[in-house]
Amino acid sequence: MSPIFLIFIIIPVIFSRSFTHDELDTDLSFIKTCNRTSPISMRTMNEVLINKKLGYGESSAFKCFLHCLFMKYGWMDSDGGFLLHDIKQTLEESDVEIASLEFILYKCTATESNNRCERAFVFTQCFWDKMAEQQPSEDQFFYNIEDKK
User: Fold this and answer.
1) What is the number of other CB atoms lying within 10 angstroms of the CB of residue 146?
2) What's the pTM?
């Protein structure tokens, strides 16, 4: 799985290594594909990337955009089930501390919703909240993906 997606949407503070051109191309392709099936505005994407906060009023399109990305990277299936083995493998490769890893695997994935898009959204918020506890001062990664004029 390519870690760039994790930078853009899930864990912008964990990875500090360089990424290959192919990884970037794959990630951008996935983002474009998911934005076609569940369109979100560039403004919404930028606000999420910069603030790492998801408002509970987010549109269903945004929530389904997250679900699409999780499917592309093998963290969720099409029904909204979490693929714990793949999540665990990625997080272990990222040197997430064990307590955080277990919390993410067993608490963040234990959402009450049966809606696959809502499950992706709730997981993402839980994940970011937990990572903020682990690395509260790691806010140096800010992204702006809007076109500059």
Assistant:
1) 11
2) 0.75
Q: Which residues of 28-66 are buried (b: 16+ CB within 10 A; e: fewer)?
A: eebbeebbeebebeeebbeebbeebebeeebeeebbbbb
- Angle of helix 60-72 versus helix 116-134 axis, rounded to 10: 80
Are 120 and 67 in contact by the 8 Å Cβ rule? The answer is: yes
pLDDT in tens, 66-107: 999 999 989 999 999 999 999 998 888 877 788 888 999 999
Whole-angstrom Cα distance, residue 61 to residue 80? 15
Check if the beta carbon of residue 83 is closer than 8 Å to that of residue 76. yes
Angular region, 53: left φ>0, alpha ψ -120 to 50, beta rest = beta
Question: For residues 61 and 39, is the Cβ–Cβ distance under 8 A?
Answer: yes
Alpha-carbon span 65 to 135, nearest angstrom: 26
CA distances from 114 to 7, 108, 120, 129 (A): 27, 14, 11, 22
Residue 8: CB atoms within 10 Å:
19
Distances (CA, A) of 132 to 10, 52, 128, 136: 12, 9, 6, 5
Taking the CB of residue 94, how many other CB atoms lie within 10 A of it? 15
